[in-house]
Design goal:
- 39% of the residues lie in helices and 12% in strands.
- The protein has 8 helices and 7 strands; from the N terminus they run E-E-H-E-E-E-H-H-E-E-H-H-H-H-H.
- It has helices at 17-30, 67-74, 81-88, 103-113, 116-121, 128-137, 141-148, 176-185, and strands at residues 2-4, 7-9, 35-38, 52-56, 63-65, 89-90, 95-96.
- The chain has a 3-stranded mixed beta sheet with strand order 3-4-5.
- The radius of gyration is 20 Å and the shape is elongated.
Length: 190
Amino acid sequence: VVRLLGWPVLVVPGIEADDAIGTLSRRAAAQGHRVLISTGDKDLAQLVTPQVTLINTMAKPPEVLDEAGVMAKFGVPPDRIVDYLTLVGDTVDNVPGVEKVGPKTAAKWIAEHGSLDGVIAAAASIKGAVGDNLRQALDWLPTGRRLITVVTDCDLAGHVPGWPALDGLALRAVDRPALLDFFQRHGFRT
């Protein structure tokens, strides 16, 4: 953990940023904290629970996604976002979905069949070109699901002092020597 202006910055080599965020949010929620994740990344909507909310401050006006907000925006609850994104794809993370399956079709299929597994089980009965595209993607879907799923159980013991407690991430005064060292190591010049 490095502190920038008193705020903890977690630098975790070998762990995806989304996975570190997922692990920290799950741990904090389990310890009774309310968690607010500032992001525009839709795949993090899978982390939303009654204790975890997303806010996209880059949207005008800022967009807040609690459980109802995820349902309103995507047409599926947070626990089905992985299924939804597996079907539609996630261009930001370069994960292709099922060709010609958009948000409305994915949400409809999940509502009808309960989950991605239900959609896969019903693939033979889904008609038309979109059904053909689904059947052609069946071998890919487990890989897509794995790529879209945010890991929430990373071992952060080597990166967060006192892990699994979160005290090492508490806001503190600026540690100027550590801040200067961080800037030098990471090529900040001004």
